[in-house]
Every structure is written in structure tokens, then in C-alpha cells.
Amino acid sequence: xxxxxxxxxxxxxxxxxxxxxxxxxxxxxxxxxxxxxxxxxxxxxxxxxxxxxxxxxxxxxxxxxxxxxxxxxxxxxxxxxxxxxxxxxxxxxxxxxxxxxxxxxxxxxxxxxxxxxxxxxxxxxxxxxxxxxxxxxxxxxxxxxxxxxxxxxxxxxxxxxxxxxxxxxxxxxx
Length: 174
Prior knowledge:
Elements: H1 11-22, H2 38-46, E1 50-53, E2 56-58, E3 61-66, E4 69-73, H3 75-83, E5 91-94, H4 100-107, E6 119-124, H5 129-140, H6 149-163, E7 169-173
Helix pairs in contact: 1-5, 2-3, 5-6
């Protein structure tokens, strides 16, 4: 999911990395230029174990589309759209700049609130397309179901932080 036209981000290559890592073990459903209102419908229709959102984010806003036009939205709108779905994904991956707070918000629980996901992944800091692709490929390469993502996350995080020291850090919030 995401808007491949904003700021020249290379989301097609990131999607290709995920597809290559998961096929044929899992069904990968891709949506480009997704509209905020489509999140709930897509999640309810496909009931994914993992929702991966690749998007451009800056100045505290996430770039998606509304009525086919690129539009910056508040992170809370994305959380609201995902939580509005009757089905809850196990994991949500926010593979874009400064997505840590959104991941924390999505995985936050107060006595296991029904509006949360089991775990969420976000980034502390600004990431490059290359970091996003490398992380996605390593995260999904060994994927064998929702519980395997924790082990895969550790390896993916170690690799990107070693390859790009002192830069953005992915975080798993569970």
C-alpha cells in the first residue's frame, strides 16, 4: 500500500522485494495510490495477517491519496482507518520515516483493547528507499506465519542498523 508518486519514492521496488520474499508461501495483495477510506474495506475483504504500508512521510504527515489526488494525512487517520475494520491484522508494518509513534499507537493496549493489533513495526528517524527495501526483504524472507515475524525482525533490524550505523532504526512494538 502507499502512493508511489509522492516525492519520487521507489515503492515498486519495495513491493517487488516483498513479493519475491513471500511468493509462493503467502498471497501478496498490492494496492498503489490507496485512499484512506479504502483501508477498512481492503482489510475486511482480504483479512491479511500483515498489513505493510510503504508511504512518504514528512512534517508529521503521511502521503496517500484522497479522491485520486495526492494528499497528506495525519497518522491518527491511518490508525483510525485500520481500527475501523472488523478484522484485525496480526501485524502492521509502517515502512516510512518517523513512523515509531504510529506503530506505538497501533500496538498500545489497555487491558487488550479490541482496537489494537498484536504488534506493529515503525521507524525512528528518516529512512531511504534502500533501507526500506533491505528491511522488507529481510523481514519477509524467512516469514512462516505471524509469529515468525519477531525472529525475522531481529535479523532485519541488525542488518539495517549495521549497514547504516547512526541512521534510522526500525522498532517492533508488541
